[in-house]
């Protein structure tokens, strides 16, 4: 067998192997089936994510900002969604990553290399990229995973950054990872100005006993850290709760209402507090689960 043929066979075997891993199969194959036609949420905020991982586009008047980087392996869809929304991907000046996991950094390296987009990530996750890249979970996506990367700006707790016409206040809300960010900013549409709120990582996958044992957090401190983070931003005033994953704010249900003519489908003064409270309740339940202690 020729070397070329051998390489080809090896590659096919690798692909089969990855396709057999349930997690890889569920989250990283057939991503095209998750394409969502982009839509405007309110003012200068657009939805350009898929049906699982949210990405928001803010037209700052001085360049575009992407809030999060999309799933790994889904960058072509992200680029298409930006075009379909009526924008040029080359105008994306900044990408603010919610946290350092593989389903939120998909477009980061491509945008940086192709368009010179500046990458922003919470300081603790940027540090983990240097010291503990295995915590990024990039290994879970098989051949889709590229290496972790250096960012252009490491976000610190309480930092306020101006991007064109939009000033964003950031707080670190560790728990799901060490460097999850939350973001708060005003959005104006005609006469109305609303406060948008974003919480960059809610999943309990990294709070499971098996995971915490694996990374050496034997006292399960990360769960307490998570509860403190919820408390820290719980009483922020938020009219417009932006999801990190669609399940957080029923992105797709609200999108349907929006398309049916309900312009206020995403405006909801209670959604933020109610969702954070529901996560607190669920985490306390997990912490008292005999299989988790
Ligand atoms: Zn994550």
Which oligomeric state applies? single chain
What structural class should be given to the helix and strand makeup?
A: alpha/beta
The number of strands is 12
Order of helices and strands: HHEEEEHEHEHEEEEEHHEHH
Task: Name some characteristics of this structure.
293 residues, alpha/beta, Metallo-beta-lactamase, Chain A, seven-stranded mixed β-sheet, five-stranded mixed β-sheet, globular, binds zinc ion
Compact description:
The chain is α/β, with parallel strands linked by helices and 293 residues long.
Word description of this protein:
The structure is a single chain. The strands form 2 sheets. A 7-stranded mixed beta sheet has the order 1-2-3-4-5-6-7. It has a 5-stranded mixed beta sheet with strand order 8-9-10-11-12, with no helix packed on it. α7 (221-234) packs antiparallel against α9 (271-287). The chain is 33% helix and 20% strand. The protein is globular and about 70 Å long. It contains 9 helices and 12 strands. It has helices at residues 3-19, 22-28, 75-84, 108-115, 123-131, 209-215, 221-234, 251-259, 271-287; strands at 39-42, 45-47, 56-59, 64-67, 92-96, 118-122, 153-155, 160-163, 166-172, 181-189, 192-199, 240-242. The chain has one domain (31-292): Metallo-beta-lactamase, Chain A (4-Layer Sandwich). By secondary structure, the chain is α/β, with parallel strands linked by helices. The chain binds zinc ion. Zinc ion binds at residues 99, 101, 176, 201, 203.
């Amino acid at each position: 067998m020729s070397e070329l043929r051998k390489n080809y066979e090896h590659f096919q075997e690798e692909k089969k192997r990855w396709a057999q891993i349930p997690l890889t199969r569920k989250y990283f194959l057939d991503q095209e089936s998750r394409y969502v036609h982009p839509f405007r949420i309110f003012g200068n905020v657009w939805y350009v994510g898929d049906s699982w991982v949210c990405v928001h586009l803010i037209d700052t008047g001085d360049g575009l900002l992407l809030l999060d980087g999309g799933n790994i392996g889904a960058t072509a869809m992200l680029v298409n969604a930006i075009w379909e929304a009526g924008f040029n991907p080359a105008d994306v000046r900044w990408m603010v990553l919610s946290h350092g996991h593989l389903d939120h950094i998909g477009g980061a390296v491509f945008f940086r290399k192709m368009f010179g987009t500046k990458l922003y990530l919470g300081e603790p996750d940027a540090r983990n990229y240097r010291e503990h890249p295995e915590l990024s979970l990039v290994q879970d996506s098989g051949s889709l995973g590229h290496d972790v990367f250096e960012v252009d700006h490491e976000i610190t707790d309480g930092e306020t950054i101006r991007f064109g016409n939009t000033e964003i206040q950031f707080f670190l809300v560790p728990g799901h990872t060490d460097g999850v960010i939350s973001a708060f900013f005003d959005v104006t549409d005609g006469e109305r100005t609303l406060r948008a709120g974003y919480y960059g990582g809610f999943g309990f996958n990294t709070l499971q006993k098996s995971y915490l044992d694996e990374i050496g957090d034997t006292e399960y401190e990360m769960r307490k850290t998570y509860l403190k983070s919820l408390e820290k931003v719980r009483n922020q005033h938020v009219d417009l709760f932006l999801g990190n994953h669609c399940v957080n704010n029923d992105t797709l249900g609200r999108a349907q209402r929006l398309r049916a003519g309900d312009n206020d489908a995403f405006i909801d003064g209670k959604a933020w507090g109610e969702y954070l409270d529901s996560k607190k309740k669920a985490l306390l339940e997990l912490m008292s689960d005999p299989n988790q202690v």
